[in-house]
What does this fold into?
Amino acid sequence: MKTETTIQGLTASLASARSSKKMIGFVPTMGNLHEGHLTLVRAAKKICDVVVVSIFVNPIQFGVGEDFDSYPRTLEQDSRLLAEVGCDIIFAPSVEQMYGTQPRLTNISVGQITDDLCGKSRPGHFDGVAVVVTKLFNIVQPDYAFFGQKDYQQLAVIRQLVQDLNIPLEVIGVPIVRAEDGLALSSRNGYLTPEQRAIAPKIYQLLKQAEQQLRQGEMLEQVLANISTELTQAGFVVDYVEARQTNLQPIAQFDQDLVLFVAAKLGSTRLIDNLQINFKT
Amino acid sequence: MKTETTIQGLTASLASARSSKKMIGFVPTMGNLHEGHLTLVRAAKKICDVVVVSIFVNPIQFGVGEDFDSYPRTLEQDSRLLAEVGCDIIFAPSVEQMYGTQPRLTNISVGQITDDLCGKSRPGHFDGVAVVVTKLFNIVQPDYAFFGQKDYQQLAVIRQLVQDLNIPLEVIGVPIVRAEDGLALSSRNGYLTPEQRAIAPKIYQLLKQAEQQLRQGEMLEQVLANISTELTQAGFVVDYVEARQTNLQPIAQFDQDLVLFVAAKLGSTRLIDNLQINFKT
It folds into this structure.
């Protein structure tokens, strides 16, 4: 496994793979890797010859007052984990390597599907994601790119971006990896105190409970309101509890496939989760 | 020479060139080709093995009330001209082929350098250019892309876009081609009546005159005002007469290299031109 910190180095490392037409898989991350990330790498290994994992805490997707400075940087540990799952190349550029010394004037906005859910409470976040992902795609030029379904809205934004801009690669969404108690794995879980960590699985429990209630015919609005109430009672500050079609459009009819979304804070730690519910099968 | 009208067809046509590592050159156009475009193709032929010319009148870079519907479509004549200069592949997609049937949600904005000059009177124009050029770059995946310096601001926008998004290609700017009387070649020149066509070279004459005046030490503001006055007297409706640094930043000091920009209408036809003036050599 190689680690490259410059675009030039990465390009050189990938040159022979590219010229011998090996399938290149790409897993963009912000590091502080957990089993969720490693599952993405394993999925990439299955269908690609060469797997590149980027580790880059992207400043422009953090808002004012968000956790850019404190976001955990654990490159040594990440490298060990990535070597174990067969990652071929780590791309760990500096902010200057990614954004240069000249001001960036170009912005990319994916409209409509970023207007609500996380887009509402994190203005500019998805623009920052769209820009860095486009840059990384252009640098790595992979055949496949792998993203976790935990960041469901992000995955939808990237699929839209790739479609709208004809970016020549295939986006693969990989299911959420959860702790045994159901908590969706996230680097931000590390911020939780032991007490908060004990409460955190409540989100998934309520999502599963909501699924049952919906299957039993309870009204969506009431089910969503229940989640919100119970989260608040458990000590969360709820950002949103919403339901959407799988393409993030508003629910148009009863009994169509949908996704439930939750974002809620425990102390200063913001957790998100989602659950897709298929009615048609 | 092949003509491809679908992305899939173009990709197939380019596959062998790409796998045998031939240099691919790309000249994006809106068709109705003149000697300016053909000069771009010749420049591409000089350094590339395979030259792709796209002909696509891009709806999203035209504003309300602009000439999208009436913009001349002359594919047969264009094909003949392109065959003569050695173009290898024409890519002439439909609007549906380029934009699909689903709504596009992604926008690309290059800020600051699009705030004035043509950006001011054509709101959204450069966003439309940035989107279509990014799409075309992703479809063609060229090593080199060629743009005329007549659309100087557009060239600057594309250079910025390529730099900011790490698009893996080199942008080549090609000098303006002029008629014998100095008029910068443009597809829109075809809109001019014989009377207007006789007046149109005035723009370049005034730019050359301004260069002389500046070299003789006349004040920039006065020189620009003269151009504007004389154009108005000749029957133009002036949109702007401006000077910028070569990177489109405002002039910061006396005697630095600069570019003079003119946009002016004759009847309903909008003409643009520019002249770079180097003081340092």
About this structure: The longest strand of chain B covers residues 258-266. The two ends of chain B are 43 Å apart (CA to CA).
